[in-house]
Structures are given as C-alpha cells and as structure tokens.
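Long-time lurker, first post. I've been practising inverse folding by hand and with some scripts of my own, and I keep getting stuck on stretches where the structure tokens seem ambiguous. Below is the full token string for one chain I'm working on. Before anyone asks, I'm not after the true native sequence, just a reasonable design that respects the backbone. If someone could post their per-position residues I'd love to compare against what I wrote down in my notebook.
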C-alpha cells in the first residue's frame, strides 16, 4: 500500500510513501478512528505560522452570500445560548 503525502508548503512536492496495509490505520484504529494528529502527520501538514495563511480572498461569491453566512453564524451562536 502506498500513501501519497502532499507537501506542507507550496514549494514542496508531494511524495509517495510505501506503507504496509496493516499499518495504514495504526495500532487498532479503524479508518474512522484515526486521530487528527495522525492524519496531519500523514498529510505532511503542520501548524500555521500566521493567521494570514487562512485568508481566502474569494471565499464568498457575493456580499449576499457573506451576509447569509453571518446570519447563520449568529443564529447558531444565539441557539447555543438558549
């Protein structure tokens, strides 16, 4: 079994790592139980160095879509307070 790991940074290339099928899920893990830290390790990702890395300039297609998102966000927060 080969697992494809993407680069952690833009300038890094993806690489394939051979892994026995028995090790694919780890010690006693089913596919749904693999811890987040293990998935991150397998994916070659690490902590962000800046909040700016999370910025997505065109995350919403329109001002209306952004307003709907905010309305839903605030409604869910209000529901949690009740």
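-- Answer (accepted) --
I ran through it position by position. Result:
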């Amino acid at each position: 079994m080969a697992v494809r790991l993407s680069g952690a940074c833009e300038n890094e290339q993806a690489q394939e790592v051979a892994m026995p099928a028995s090790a694919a899920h780890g010690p006693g893990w089913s596919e749904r139980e693999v811890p987040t830290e293990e998935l991150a390790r397998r994916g070659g990702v690490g902590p962000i160095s800046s909040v700016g890395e999370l910025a997505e300039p065109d995350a919403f297609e329109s001002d209306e879509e952004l307003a709907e998102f905010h309305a839903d966000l605030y409604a869910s927060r209000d529901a949690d307070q009740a």
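A couple of notes from the structure itself: The two ends are 49 Å apart (CA to CA). The longest helix spans residues 63-81. Happy to go over any region you disagree with.
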